[in-house]
């Protein structure tokens, strides 16, 4: 596997990435990228010059996964968005390798922190369908993962839950905010 910066020139690879966004988020994030066109629009946005856009490829050049980043706060903070790995290849270290390379590139650009939002739209955690305005810190401290929500993947990578946006995706469907210092 090799991880490279995507320069936006390979149309075939762009199409693979657009389809990956649809496929990887289909099961639990029903309003992420519903169509190939939605995915292609996101890929085009990821190609903007100030962003970080990395792809993991196998030896034959086939797409294994991708990660993007958006600078915020004058480049001191970077939003990790999105991370996608081929559904049949998840759990094999591809996502971990992409995140590690992304963090290194953020560090090289002078970034201090990586942040991300990890939505709970499908009752995957104990934060779904509860009043997060009541005893929020207790609920965050005692969070439980019911359906392989990715927040635990990020915790293993050193990220901490730094906040939550209640009802971000509709009543009882929060966005879990996670952050990590990379400098």
Descriptive report:
This protein is an alpha+beta fold and 183 residues long. It is built from 5 helices and 7 strands; from the N terminus they run E-H-H-E-E-E-H-E-H-H-E-E. It has a 7-stranded mixed beta sheet. It is globular.
Q: What attributes does this structure have?
A:
single chain; 183 residues; alpha+beta; 7-stranded mixed sheet; 5 helices; 7 strands; globular
Short précis:
The protein is α+β, with helices and mostly antiparallel strands and 183 residues long.
List the helices and strands and how they pair.
Blueprint: E1 2-5, H1 11-25, H2 36-46, E2 52-57, E3 63-72, E4 77-85, H3 94-108, E5 113-119, H4 136-141, H5 151-156, E6 160-165, E7 175-181
Helix pairs in contact: 1-2
Q: If strands are numbered along the chain, what order do they take across the biggest sheet?
A: 1-2-3-4-5-7-6
For the termini, the CA-CA separation is: 26 Å
The structural class is: alpha+beta
Overall, the morphology is globular
Average pLDDT confidence is: 94
| Structure annotation, total helices | 5
As residue ranges, the low-confidence spans are none
Radius of gyration: 16 Å
Strand content: 25-35%
SSE pattern: EHHEEEHEHHEE
Helix content range: 25-40%
Largest sheet: 7 strands, mixed
Strand tally: 7
